[in-house]
């Protein structure tokens, strides 16, 4: 019974806060766990609570499931403007604490290796998934095993952590909206571009024209 504090590491139990992430995201997957463990680590390193306003900012260098883990855990949300998604395809995240003027960047620098106790099963599933022969149930099981393995690993085995220069990300911008010269829809002025005739048009219209 001395393993009580590690009970969540058994396969059948998911930590309560991860369950909250799953409830928001829709399913348990490795991507969500990446965001979850990064959030947990940043809570520890930056001594933060879930962001009510914009005091915490997360910069995600991918637009994967991980983003949702961060949204739930540290309150860096799409709507508040304190979630910046840079679609670089990197499993890397920077979490900034404005009041403490501190920031950490977490990045994945090694490839994934399963280290749970279902190695044989995982390897078979992994093979089937990569060969495209896995059915839906097998794909789910593979994701599940990987997700559980990821949150059971020591954080440092999954992510490389580095304190980075704190640079204050700008607060979410508030700008007046004006009507797009083409579609007429009210658009934040700062997000508009100049059309051929010099009038302001929205991004959608500028993309459609080109
Ligand atoms: Zn997912
Ligand atoms: Zn328009």
Description:
- With about 210 residues, the protein is an alpha+beta fold.
- The chain folds into 2 domains: about 5-165, 60s Ribosomal Protein L30, Chain: A (2-Layer Sandwich); about 175-210.
- It has helices spanning about 15-25, 30-45, 65-75, 120-130, 135-150, 155-160, 205-210; strands at about 55-60, 85, 90-95, 100-105, 160-165, 175-180, 185-190, 195, 200.
- Helix 2 runs parallel beside helix 3 and helix 4 (about 120-130) packs across helix 5.
- Mean pLDDT is about 90; it is low at about 1-10.
- One zinc ion binds near residues 183, 185, 201 and 202.
Return the CATH class of the largest domain. Answer: Alpha Beta
Proportion of strand residues: 15-25%
- Please tell me the CATH architecture of the largest domain by its name: 2-Layer Sandwich
- N- and C-termini, Cα separation: 66 Å
> What fraction, in percent, of the residue positions are helical?
25-40%
What is the residue-averaged pLDDT? 89
CATH topology of the largest domain: 60s Ribosomal Protein L30, Chain: A
Oligomer: single chain
Please report the total strand number as a whole number. 9
Domain unit count: 2
Outline the biggest β-sheet. 5 strands, mixed
Task: Give the strand order of the largest sheet, numbering strands 1, 2, ... along the chain.
Answer: 2-1-3-4-5
Task: Tell me the number of helical segments per DSSP (H or I, 4 or more residues long).
Answer: 7
């Amino acid at each position: 019974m001395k393993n009580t504090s590690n009970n969540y590491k058994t396969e059948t139990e998911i930590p309560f806060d991860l369950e909250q992430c799953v409830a928001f995201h829709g399913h348990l997957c490795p991507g969500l766990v990446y965001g979850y463990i990064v959030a947990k680590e940043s809570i520890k390193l930056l001594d933060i609570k879930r962001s009510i306003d914009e005091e915490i900012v997360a910069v995600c260098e991918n637009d994967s499931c991980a983003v949702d883990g961060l949204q739930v855990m540290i309150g860096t949300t799409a709507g508040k403007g304190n979630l910046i998604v840079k679609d670089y395809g990197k499993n890397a995240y920077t979490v900034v604490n404005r009041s403490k003027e501190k920031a950490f960047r977490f990045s994945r620098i090694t490839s994934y290796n399963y280290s749970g106790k279902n190695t044989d099963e995982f390897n078979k599933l992994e093979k089937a998934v990569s060969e495209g022969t896995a059915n839906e149930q097998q794909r789910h099981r593979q994701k599940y095993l990987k997700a559980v393995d990821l949150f059971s690993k020591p954080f440092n085995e999954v992510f490389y952590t580095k304190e980075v220069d704190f640079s204050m990300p700008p607060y979410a911008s508030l700008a007046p909206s004006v009507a797009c010269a083409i579609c007429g829809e009210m658009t934040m002025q700062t997000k508009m571009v100049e059309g051929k005739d010099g009038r302001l048009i929205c991004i959608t219209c500028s993309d459609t024209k080109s």
